[in-house]
Amino acid sequence: MADFTSIRREECRATPLPPGCSLGASRTVILQSVLNEIKEHGRASMHAEVCGVLVGSLCWDGAAYLLVDGRIEGKHATHQSGSVTFTAETWDSIHEELDAKHPGRVIVGWYHTHPGFGIFLSNMDAFIHENFFSFPWQPAYVFDPQAETDGFFFREGNNLVQEEVAVVPDAAPLVREPTPCTGDRIVVQDESGRSFLRIGLVGATVLLLLLGTISASSILLLRQSRQRERLAEEKAERLQQTIRNQAEELREFQRQREAEQASHWLGSGFAHHLFHWWNSERDVPARQRANGRKILEFRFGESPVPGKTAPNPSIVDERWEWDAAEHIPVSSTRQQDKPSPPGRDDQ
User: Fold this and answer.
1) Less crowded by CB within 10 Å, the N or C end of the chain?
2) In this structure, how many other beta carbons lie within 10 angstroms of the beta carbon of residue 279?
3) Once rounded to an integer, what is the mean pLDDT over residues 7-15?
4) Residue 145 belongs to a domain
5) Mean pLDDT across the stretch 247-271?
6) Rg (Cα) of the chain, in Å, rounded?
7) Is the pTM of this model over 0.70?
């Protein structure tokens, strides 16, 4: 029940009650046109909460009562599906419009919507009411644009309870509004059971956020794994290139070594055959060596180095030739048959 005990007559406007209207426990009267504007504001956002303030004055007609004859939209407020917040820009806009369009009036309460959530005050709503609308006679109006239900809440002790208000028929009511100011007052249905739907939506939102976080973490881990694989492949490629370079250097070293061995072998082969020829020359008579010449034939074979062709000399034929002036026949013999010196048959 709204508390007007601290209100003095000097603080109120001398305004009689509209004919036919009776005050209830809330001692609050609101114009139908103001309710229509609030509901139109709420229906413009069927999925996110909107807010505003109630504008009016304290009046006196035998006792104090509250007359709500205007409202101001809460522009620049942060709107979400489950909450709404008055920002500093919101309050600046409200006070500018209050001075410009509602002279002589004051902020007497506030309103906001619960699209699909039902009629109740959440903990955040109670916090806003306690800190920004702390007078015991200031109401909080809640409207559900989906269910077309509404309700006024007033402070009663330490609690906020729902109360009935009287409506002045200065305009035609909108959808589902009863005819006011005929002794009847608005009785707002309590649909706090819809809070379970709100809790479910909040839980689904949290679940989606968790899934999004898990998905982002999985994608990050996958990218890191792919990066590590790419680095490992690059390292393996560099190692293989190093092995190939070392193998090429080893082959080049082997080729040089084989060439040195072949050169050494070739030189030693010629020395061996020349030594053999020198020894064979000592067995030839001096006259034969003086008047003839010895001809050596060499054969070149395959190199002992695989895949290489190099001289491998060996004596395959040797013969002596004499000049015709000495009347010595030219004979040919193998290395094993020694030539006979001229005139030996006559001896």
Assistant:
1) C
2) 9
3) 87
4) yes
5) 75
6) 60
7) no
Q: Does residue 178 lie within any of the structural domains? A: yes
Q: CA separation (Å) from 317 to 28, 60, 301, 338?
A: 143, 152, 15, 12
**pLDDT band at 347, cuts 50/70/90?**
very low
Q: Domain boundary residue among 171, 190, 209? A: 190
Count of domains in the chain?
A: 2
- Residue 130 CA: distances (Å) to CA of 103, 138, 139, 159: 26, 10, 11, 10
Q: How many helices (H) and strands (E) does the chain have?
A: 5, 13
pLDDT of the residue at 266: 58
Question: 41 or 192: which carries more pLDDT confidence?
Answer: 41
The arithmetic mean of pLDDT across residues 266-275, rounded, is 57
Grouping H, G, I as helix, E, B as strand and the rest as coil, residue 38 is helix
Residues 164 and 302 in one domain: no
Residue 143: name the closest of 243, 41, 239 by CA: 41
Range of the domain at 73: 9-190
Rounded to whole angstroms, the Cα distance separating 184 from 311 reads 131
Angular region, 183: left φ>0, alpha ψ -120 to 50, beta rest: left
Query: 32: which residues sit within 8 A by CB, 6+ positions away?
Result: 167, 168, 169, 170, 171, 172, 173, 177, 180
CA–CA dist 50, 34 (Å, integer): 16
pLDDT at residue 190 greater than cutoff 50: no
